[in-house]
Design a protein that fits this description.
The chain is α/β, with parallel strands linked by helices. It is built from 11 helices and 15 strands. The chain binds 6-O-phosphono-beta-D-fructofuranose.
């Protein structure tokens, strides 16, 4: 039997939409790989694109100095460039082909023994396919949406939540001054984690999330009830994936060569228009958008990212390939990648935070 090849060089890449804390993970991977294990590290640029096109840079401890508090990713990222569904031009037409062979060629050119893939469900699903075909790798769960199955929390979520909460604090003062209804549309795709948590932290009166389809009349009732109690303004948080009972989500655009081509957006404007029409109250809408993905990570995200990064290297060195590091309670563990990408984590109806919110009188538009 051939001897197991010792790992002496690893690669790292960041894939999918960016999230605060990516640089903190890269830093932790590079520093622990070099300091703890004497490895060398190469970073592939722009997600799997860099592995397909052979775009890479060596990463030393100096290269990651000072990046802990920086948002974004020094390696670049993309939510396109799926090696199993890669667009090329042929005979004047755009067709999709499997270019995954190039990934094996390029890891070999760079002498990479194993890879750390930092990404969300799309990147981790690609990682799982590559692992099934023989590439040694480990995943690190990233997304502001916090919707990854098999981890209690992804890094990036806490920062997005803080940004959204700060926005709600600001909307409160102007809403109160003008006696208006303020609608804030937040990201999160098909999960309501950001909207729920920010809504509670920011003292919203109504929170609409994908997991609880709403009736706009219930929302209007809540706002009128507040008004009757001499509370002349209201704050409504709407997750981009929220939808009315019996209705559908609002799709803003499609990005065909991305893992999940649907981009949600626009429900805030619809909800605001309906509130104004039913209650007669002046209503304004804010779409927080990509501000939720930017900026310096919170202390919580810096710590979680650091723990994920060091654990990813430790587990790789133990030979735990084809897994994703995850948070279970307060401990960092791993789960097999097929479990990690096996479903989306939604807000469960019996979630304690949901119950607390209802107890405070926050409306979810369903009663
Ligand atoms: O998954 C992260 C996320 O920010 C979602 O909340 C949002 O729906 C989507 O990405 C936006 O994608 P893009 O950056 O392609 O507009």
């Amino acid at each position: 039997m051939a001897a197991k090849k010792k790992i002496s060089r690893i690669g790292v890449l960041t894939g999918g939409g960016d999230a605060p804390g990516l640089n903190a993970v890269i830093r932790a991977v590079v520093k622990s790989a070099i300091r703890e294990y004497g490895l060398s590290v190469v970073g592939f640029l722009n997600g799997f694109g860099g592995l397909i096109k052979n775009q890479a840079r060596e990463l030393s401890e100096n290269d990651v100095a000072g990046i802990l508090p920086r948002g974004g990713t020094i390696l670049g990222t993309t939510n396109r460039d799926n090696p199993f569904h890669y667009p090329i031009e042929k005979g004047g037409e755009r067709i999709f082909v499997d270019v995954s062979d190039r990934i094996f060629e390029n890891t070999s050119i760079h002498g990479v023994d194993a890879l750390v893939v930092i990404g969300g469900d799309g990147s981790l699903a690609i990682a799982k396919e590559l692992y099934d075909r023989g590439l040694k790798l480990i995943g690190v769960p990233k997304t502001i949406d916090n919707d990854l199955y098999a981890t209690d929390q992804t890094f990036g979520f806490d920062t997005a939540l803080n940004t959204a909460t700060e926005a709600l604090d600001k909307l409160h003062t102007t809403a109160e001054s003008h006696h208006r209804v303020m609608v804030l549309e937040l990201m999160g795709r098909n999960a309501g984690w950001i909207a729920l948590a920010a809504g509670v932290a920011g003292g919203a009166d109504v929170i609409l999330i994908p997991e609880i389809p709403y009736d706009i009349n219930c929302v209007a009732r809540k706002i009128n009830h507040r008004s009757n109690q001499n509370k002349k303004f209201s704050i409504v948080v709407v997750a981009e994936g929220a939808r009315p009972i019996g209705g559908d989500v609002v799709v803003q655009r499609r990005v065909e060569d991305s893992f999940d081509p649907v981009r949600l957006g626009g429900i805030g404007q619809i909800v605001a228009g309906e509130i104004e029409a039913i209650t007669g109250k002046e209503t304004r809408v804010t779409v927080l958008g990509h501000l939720q993905r930017g900026g310096s990570p919170t202390a919580y995200d810096r710590i979680l990212s650091t723990r994920y990064g060091t654990a990813a290297v430790n587990f790789l060195m133990e030979g735990r390939y084809g897994h994703m590091v995850c948070l279970k309670g307060t401990e960092i563990e791993t789960v097999p990648l097929d479990e990690a990408v096996g479903g989306q984590r939604k807000v469960p109806p019996d979630l304690d935070l949901l119950k607390s919110a209802r107890q405070l009188g926050i409306s979810f538009g369903d009663a």
